[in-house]
Amino acid sequence: MNKEQLLELRNKIVASAQEVAVNGSGDPGDRLQLLLNLIKGGDTSFDILNKAYELTGSINNDDGKLSALLDVLYEVDAKLGAIEGDAENAPANDAEYTDVQQQ
């Protein structure tokens, strides 16, 4: 097994996971978590970020919805910071994000 084989397998797994998360009929919370994991793993396409945002609308309780929205917002801000190379747009650290999320 070499690096190329592992990367090919990884790409297949990511594509399958995306298909389930984007088009599946499973629990929206589970699908959202899967999308957030894919985003953290490097899939930064607008479609995936937008679908994650859309799935937050399927969460019925306010606390869960707020937490999900903050998770998606954190990822969008991180991507903006990386694109612009501007530390001002990216969260300073996970502790700052956690503090906001817990309020």
Can you describe this structure?
α1 (3-23) packs antiparallel against α2, α2 packs parallel to α4 and α3 packs antiparallel against α4. It contains five helices and no strands. It is flat and about 45 Å long. It is mainly α and 103 residues long. The model is unreliable at 95-103 (pLDDT under 50).
Task: Please write out the topology.
Elements: H1 3-23, H2 28-40, H3 46-56, H4 62-84, H5 94-102
Helix pairs in contact: 1-2, 2-3, 2-4, 3-4
Give a quick set of tags describing it.
103 residues, mainly alpha, 75% helix, flat, disordered C terminus
- Distance separating the two termini: 47 Å
Topology order in helix (H) and strand (E) letters: HHHHH
Query: Low-confidence parts lasting 5 or more residues at pLDDT below 50?
Result: 95-103
Number of strands: 0
Largest sheet: none
Average predicted confidence as pLDDT: 83
Q: Any idea what the radius of gyration is?
A: 15 Å
Helix content range of the residues, please? Answer: over 70%
Q: Given the helix and strand composition, which structural class is it? A: mainly alpha
Described by the principal axes of the CA atoms, the overall outline is: flat
Percent of sequence in beta strands:
under 5%
The number of distinct helices, counting runs of at least 4 residues, comes to: 5
